[in-house]
């Protein structure tokens, strides 16, 4: 079987789906506004490439156990490369296209899928990577290690978001304990694959264009403050 974060229609009742759909819309509206500060002639093409890459890689499943496979979520990857706000929009676009054109994830569950992968996943990955930024800046190996850890954590936490949604309005017939064990246990294994793909991708970018990696760049406010102080 394929175990992925994409929720299908009917797993959660209508009120819960609607609530998380509205939450996703609100966060995406904020992300759209905040992302403008991070996009310029240099970073906008990077965002497009990252979105296309995540879309392509999510179509490829990798084995985790006999008869079980998973795929990349991409939360930490986009957070490290283009930042949390742009990254949230990147993953949301991927999920929207997958849901509408490829029926990968239910349309009534789109808000929850965006919440889990584009919001919880991206910001979890970013917060982990941001907390380890000092280590990431020391060397390429440090950056790669941070990318792996952030990707692993973001995968597990995103699966916990699924469990919370199921606890609030589960309609799939399975017990909450079963859902928790299945989602968290298997996504801990998927997180290893997620970490390896994320680390390899971030490492490849770092070897050629480290200046494009969001995590390694100094915040604009920090540069401005330094300029005024000098």
Distance between the termini: 60 Å
How many strands in all?
Answer: 2
Cα radius of gyration in angstroms: 18 Å
Mean pLDDT: 87
User: Main sheet, how many strands, which sense, barrel?
Assistant: 2 strands, antiparallel
Low-confidence stretches: 220-230
Secondary-structure element sequence?
HHEEHHHHHHH
Class inferred from helices and paired strands: mainly alpha
Note the overall shape.
Answer: globular
**Helicity range:** over 70%
Description of the molecule:
- This protein has 230 residues and is mainly α.
- Helices cover 71% and strands 3% of the residues.
- The protein is built from nine helices and two strands.
- Strands 1-2 form a two-stranded antiparallel ribbon.
- A hairpin with a 2-residue loop joins strand 1 and strand 2 (68-70).
- The longest helix is centred in the C-terminal third of the chain and has 33 residues, at 176-208.
- It starts with 13 loop residues before the first helix and ends with a helix.
Jot down its keywords.
230 residues, mainly alpha, 9 helices, 2 strands, globular, disordered C terminus
Topology summary:
Elements: H1 14-35, H2 43-58, E1 62-65, E2 68-70, H3 75-82, H4 84-101, H5 110-131, H6 133-136, H7 140-169, H8 176-208, H9 220-229
Antiparallel strand pairs: 1-2
Helix pairs in contact: 1-4, 1-5, 2-3, 2-4, 3-4, 3-5, 3-7, 3-8, 4-5, 5-7, 7-8
Characterize this entry briefly.
By secondary structure, the protein is mainly α. It has 9 helices and 2 strands; from the N terminus they run ααββααααααα. Helix 4 runs antiparallel to helix 5 and helix 5 (110-131) packs antiparallel against helix 7.
């Amino acid at each position: 079987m394929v175990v992925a974060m994409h929720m299908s229609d009917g797993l959660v009742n209508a009120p819960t789906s609607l609530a998380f759909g509205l939450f996703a819309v609100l966060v995406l509206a904020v992300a759209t506004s905040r992302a403008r500060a991070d996009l310029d002639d240099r970073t906008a093409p990077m965002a497009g490439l990252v979105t296309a890459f995540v879309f392509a890689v999510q179509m490829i499943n990798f084995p985790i156990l006999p008869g079980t496979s998973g795929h990349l979520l991409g939360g930490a990857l986009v957070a490290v490369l283009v930042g949390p706000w742009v990254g949230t929009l990147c993953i949301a676009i991927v999920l929207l296209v997958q849901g509408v054109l490829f029926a990968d994830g239910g349309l009534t569950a789109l808000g929850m899928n965006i919440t889990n992968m584009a919001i919880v996943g991206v910001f979890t990955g970013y917060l982990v990577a941001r907390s380890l930024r000092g280590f990431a800046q020391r060397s390429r190996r440090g950056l790669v290690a941070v990318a792996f850890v952030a990707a692993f954590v973001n995968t597990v936490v995103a699966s916990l978001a699924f469990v919370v949604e199921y606890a609030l309005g589960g309609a799939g017939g399975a017990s909450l304990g079963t859902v928790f064990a299945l989602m968290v246990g298997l996504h801990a294994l998927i997180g290893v694959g997620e970490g390896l793909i994320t680390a390899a991708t971030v490492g490849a970018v770092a070897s050629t264009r480290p200046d494009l990696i969001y995590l390694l760049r100094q915040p604009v406010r920090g540069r401005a403050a330094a300029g005024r102080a000098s």
